[in-house]
Amino acid sequence: MRFKLPILTLVALSAASPLGATPTPDFPFPIYGNESVAATDNAWGFTVNPAAGGRRYPAELMLSYSALEPKGNVYRGALSHDGAGVVISIPDDQPRAWLLGFGGGPDKLRAGFSFTRLYENGGSGRASDYDFGLLSRPKPWLSLGGTANHIFQPRFLGQLFERQYTMGLGLRPFGLSRTQADKLGSTLTLTADLLMAEGASASQARLRFGAEVEAGHGLVLRGAIQDHGGFQLGIGLLGNDAGYHGSAAYAEDKDRLAMNHALSMHQGEERNAFGESRKRRVAVVPVQGVLGDDALTSVTVTDGATGTRGVAAIHQQLERALEDPRTRGVLLELGGAANMAQLEELRPRVAALRHAGKPVVAYMEQGGGRGDFYLAAACSRVVASEEALFMGLGLRSEHRYYKSLLADWGVKVDRASYGKYKSAWRNYSVDSTTAADREAIERNLDVSQELFVASVARDRGVERQRLLTALDGRPWTSQDLTRLGLVDSVGYREDALRILGGLASLGRSPRTVDLARTRQARHSWTEPTPIAVVYATGAIETGRSGNDLFLGAYMGSSTIVGQLESAFRNPDVRAVVFRVESTGGSGLASNLIDHAVQRLKRETKKPLIVSMGSVAGSGGYYIAAHADRIYCDRYTRTGSIGVVTIKPSFERWYAKHDVRQDDFERGRYMRGTSAARDWDRTLQAVADSSVMDFYRVFVSKVADGRKMDWSAVDAVAQGRVWMGEDAVERKLVDEIGGLEQAIAEARRRAGVPPGEKIRILEYRRPRPWLLERLAGSAMASVWSRSAHLPDANAVYYLADADADE
What we know:
- The protein is an alpha/beta fold.
- It contains 19 helices and 40 strands.
- It is about 25% helix and about 30% strand.
- Strands 1-2-3-4-5-6-7-10-11-12-13-14-15-16 form a 14-stranded antiparallel beta barrel. Strands 17, 18, 19, 20, 21, 23, 27 and 28 form an eight-stranded mixed β-sheet that branches.
- A hairpin with a 2-residue loop joins strand 2 (about 70-80) and strand 3.
């Protein structure tokens, strides 16, 4: 039996049956030599299974030439980009066609659809054809595919295209190893496809078995054999961003029926590329601005416009640089990097690169601050430009008090709190720093200074006193800091690259790459997601997450609870990491989140690990207390177990301006809720009593979560903010470590082997609409939340943020 050669629509037009006849089906036209509805992931895959097309590369352009025996030549082009594709077919003397395909969905079940338009060559004949495909990859070693072709059975040039159905199975034997699936899983791929026409007999079904072997260094061997005779052989040479694919199709008697040549250009680097040694390079990674778990922009009436830059992209680039054999070193471009806790989590990534023999050079073009030097000290070399200026390398914490100013305006802030260290909003109700606040501030400054000095002096090999000289607050030039041992060389970016090239043995002008823009080809069919990370960033409020003109970007309890529900209920997730970076907020919102944490742990039996970012204070600590294990960085400000509430009063302002107010009320203490009345002793006592009740509850929650006595928690509570190691010593935190260590602990508890490649399922802050980001909520809603007597909806667990970064 001779091998039939369909053009594009999966049925050979030359062999199409007359109207009313049941056709003998045949497989799609082979370009690579082992096409399968379960495994063809490139741009050509849209013609095989629209659900699988374009999965391997973010974008690909393929051009092919086929010499058919005896029909002539066929020229094809295929273009794919993020789940969409276009394929054009131009034969010498056959109908021409173009296809438009789309695919989308998760790995477990992906769907695709394609539309094909056929044109008679030199005539007026036209026809439209539609195909549908499904793809399921539940495991790294298993792929299931299926297609329905010619759904509406089009007629073209007197021929009828009967519906056809294809089912495919793909197996990757090496993917069965959990620890080797990522490295070796795609080395061998076996496929089996069954094709049947609607109404055809079982004897007319077609079976095809295929195989693909990655021989290494960009060499791929392919082949397929059909049960009714005929076979194909193929070869691929894969470059970093281009490739050649050749194949030949043979009949049962070994007569060659077709010879195919294809060239492809693609985005998405191949990890085992032909000639990859010539592609060795260094990565350029900018680290600038205030770093945070999420990229947030807040506009508030008190602070104006503030924002953080998401640190995840930096972690991903450094991890990619570590794993990528082509990347031989990293240039860190530092400029105003801040948030010491986040920077501390980057330092182990730098250390891992250096340990792997990949040097890291820090370059500071405009100068830098304390955070820049903290990260730069971990690098192999530090380079600063000639006119760079370094200022404010020491520590300073400013606290202003507005009681007298407000009194001049006729405004009084009534305040109730429990915990002598609970300092939030105290600057509106007192005229100077209290002894307790002074004690806490001095302690945290001392801890921050010692952490910085000990780490930088050790990394740079300089004496403590010389380093302390640089931290005295004077402006310093690059030359000054070179003499002090904090900078190795004065030069420009090309000088930093020259130094890095020498350290990496890549010469004076190494190739550079932006790994944030350079995506990788996708080899694995799927990666398991046994670990989920839920990010809780910002002040805590009830309702959905949003942006407020008073609080800035805040987390909403309903949003966080919904994300926790989704993470815990996901059957693939076996452990959850709760990443907290918050100064606190609403007592009710904190309680709702904490209740959800306890309920979900109890109902699902899944562990919860907490990772604290730069701050997890008050409500931020409340929602973390019932975790199975808590991690924090050495610079994390945590605790602040205390309660405070405030209410502004304009009674004297109204009196100053001859505003008369008559009160009519039912309820002895209703006067305390008015923004036009000061609290008297009775109302102050009521507020103090209410706050004390909430404090007892807060301490009880912590005692229950941390398995401590109430009195032991009370002794370290009182609104006191503790730095990381102090918090560990007082048993508020279990261990020093960042998000990476928390995920490692979650992996251990979930039974995930250390070498298994997994994908973290992330639940991040929902992106708001532009108008919401800019405008926030109305000021009336802000005051309505703060102008009241304390109750369950009103308590704010707010911790003061020390200016130590």
